[in-house]
Amino acid sequence: MLILPFFLFSQVEDTTIVLYPDIEAKFPGGPTEMKRFIIDNLEYPKIEFETIPDGRIFIEFIVNLDGSIEQVKTREEGVKELDNAYIEVIKNMPNWIPAEVNGVKVRSRGILPFRICFQ
Description:
Blueprint: H1 3-10, E1 17-18, H2 30-41, E2 55-63, E3 69-74, H3 80-91, E4 99-101, E5 104-116
Parallel strand pairs: 1-5
Antiparallel strand pairs: 2-3, 2-5, 4-5
């Protein structure tokens, strides 16, 4: 009888998100490849750019144990079409190299800042 409850709990996936891992999650190929991916895949929406204030967009997401990305969102809402363009490019990224704590892969939160400046 005591084995059954232990068995049931051992099947539950760990949903803990580590905020300060020993090794941060990273894009495969590093920052240079990530920048290239974003430039190649970001599609700006068709909106009047003159009406968009300069500023920053912060995109938050979770990197899972397998490197997949989920729960992509902006920290603060700005211009909806522009926010959605950045969210989509992050959602379409290849799997990241997951974060680690004591040599064990963990789920972690990522935040990417984007500077918005139209000239």
